[in-house]
Automatic annotation (TrEMBL):
The keyword Membrane applies. Keywords: Membrane, Transmembrane, Transmembrane helix. Residues 477-504 are annotated as: Disordered. The chain crosses the membrane at residues 447-468. It comes from the Bacteria. This is DUF4178 domain-containing protein. Residues 482-491 have a biased composition (Low complexity). Residues 78-204, 281-418 form the DUF4178 domain. Residues 492-504 have a biased composition (Gly residues). It comes from Acidovorax kalamii.
């Protein structure tokens, strides 16, 4: 177990049932008894029972209490152990945060962020935090002199907890939550469930980089009780992921809200004009070295401001137990693989470019997006007719997309991939023709002109000379000499990647 052997542990009997309750960190003030679920508070050498904690919502996470690992902090490889687990619910969904006990005796947080993991530590913001309603989506604020973009504001509440924990907000009582993100990939969380607000800062991490030991076996998933009848047609519906907030009925394709959890009041919305996914739900494939499973599908339509011509694209929601969620996007411009970013790119004042992780991306499209059809499971509350404002950017290093809703801005980044790669990954070689797109070459600036380019230019010039010669000799009394043409980009997009909101 990755803890400092000199750390003094404290153990006392639970006031509710007498079972031993142990505190490893001097910073921990609360704990949940593993036997009777009593919430106890530590005051000196005395434990006081506050009440009973609600049952945990099984999120099928590979993490569990007492799992240990290592994290790079300030150039050092620091051991840590997961000693507590908190579950929150907000308008963006349900998420889990783990209390990580570092070997220096301090506490940190390992939380889930848009299907990824973020490791954060408490910081002193250097100033008094304004009220949460003072933060406006898309504006910039500073923490210790560093600029951050306001990515999310909303309400959250603690719904359950387990293990050893820092001071807890009142169970079930809403409090403000604000998320800030920087152009170099940092995220700052401001939790107004404490007085003064708790401020933490961190970055995205991969579970494999944390050298974790003691993870839950994948076979330990417990899916009992995750089946119910469709409220519209009565057909059985099976939920595969406990984090799902929406699911569609396999019989009537109605969208079913799971916002209250299975067993709560289920609401459904009928869908018509089905759009069948080219990659079947449940398909498994390997892309970019990761094994993914297709768990959701949505079709979306976009329209540029001031235009009445719509364009469409499809998004496949992919899931991996350790990597979380990603999107495989099928648009007129080809296939792309993207994931929500932890940080927030810095957009130029003109809106014509954005900079992220030191790379500048140029604006290609601005459009309004709307969800028109969905299938499968989603970790956010998806509804038909959801609308967002989107901007797509591109650079030699890949793609970048911004999606804005009333209370959140989500950025996504990724790369284009070839149709052959998609077909091979999901073993769909027999559908190669259907999956085929105009796969563009890589975004690489080339110096000089190749022979093929020179020949092509020569042919174009020759055609223009012929046309000019023809028009100069044209007699309008005999021929129609006027010519007109119009061209409009097909639009397309890199995704309009519905992240469904952040974890807070």
């Amino acid at each position: 177990m990755a803890t400092d052997p000199t750390q003094r542990y404290y153990r006392a009997p639970c006031p509710g049932c007498g079972a031993p309750v142990e505190f490893k960190s001097a910073q921990s003030t609360h704990a949940v008894c593993g036997y009777c679920q009593s919430t106890v508070v530590r005051s000196g050498e005395v434990l006081t029972r506050l009440g009973k904690m609600a049952e945990l919502f099984d999120d099928h996470s590979p993490l569990q209490l007492m799992a240990s690992g290592r994290i790079q902090l300030d150039g050092k490889n620091v051991p840590f152990t997961l000693i507590g687990r908190l579950q929150y619910k907000g308008d963006a969904g349900v998420w889990t945060e783990w209390a990580a006990f570092l070997s220096d005796g301090t506490l940190a947080t390992l939380g889930e962020d848009n299907g990824a993991y973020v490791f954060t530590r408490p910081i002193d913001p250097g100033r008094e935090m304004p009220a949460p309603e003072r933060f406006r989506i898309g504006t910039t604020t500073a923490i210790n002199g560093k600029p951050y973009s306001v990515a999310y504001t909303g309400q959250a509440q603690l719904i359950s907890a387990q293990g050893e924990l820092p001071k807890l907000p009142p169970l079930g009582q809403p409090f403000g939550m604000v998320e800030l993100r920087s152009s170099d990939g940092e995220v700052v969380s401001i939790d107004y469930g404490h007085t003064p607000p708790n401020v933490e800062r961190g970055r995205a991490v991969l579970l494999e980089d944390l050298q974790l030991q003691g993870l839950k076996d994948e076979s330990a998933k417990h899916e009992k009780g995750r089946q119910f009848s469709c409220p519209h047609c009565g057909a059985p519906v099976q939920v595969q992921l406990s984090t799902s907030k929406s699911i569609t009925c396999g019989s009537c394709a109605s969208i079913i809200s799971l916002d209250s959890g299975v067993g709560g009041e289920l609401r459904s919305a009928e869908q018509d004009e089905p759009v069948q996914p080219l990659i079947p739900l449940g398909s498994k494939g390997q892309l970019q070295g990761v094994h993914w499973q297709v768990v959701g599908f949505q079709h979306r339509m976009g329209v540029e401001p001031g235009d009445d011509e719509h364009f469409g694209w499809s998004e496949y929601l992919l899931y991996n137990q350790k990597r979380g969620f990603a999107f495989l996007v099928d648009s007129e411009e080809g296939w792309s693989m993207v994931r929500p970013t932890t940080g927030a790119p810095q957009m130029a004042a003109t809106g014509r470019s954005a900079t992220y992780m030191g790379t500048k991306y140029d604006l290609k499209y601005t459009y309004e997006a709307e969800t028109t059809y969905v299938l499968g499971e989603f970790y956010w509350q998806v509804t038909r007719g959801q609308k967002t404002t989107n901007r797509d950017f591109a650079s030699s290093k890949g793609l970048l997309s911004m999606e804005q809703s009333p209370n959140e801005i989500t950025w996504s980044a990724g790369d284009k991939i070839s149709s052959d790669t998609v077909a091979k990954a999901f073993k769909l070689e027999d559908k190669k023709d259907v999956l085929q797109r105009d796969d563009p070459g890589p975004f690489v600036a080339k110096s000089g002109l190749g022979c093929g380019t020179i020949i092509l230019l020569a042919v174009v010039i020759l055609i223009l000379l012929i046309l000019l010669s023809r028009c100069s000799s044209c007699d309008p009394r005999v021929e129609n000499c006027s010519s007109s043409s119009s061209y409009r980009s097909s639009g397309g997009s890199y995704g309009g990647y519905s992240s469904g909101g952040s974890h807070k």
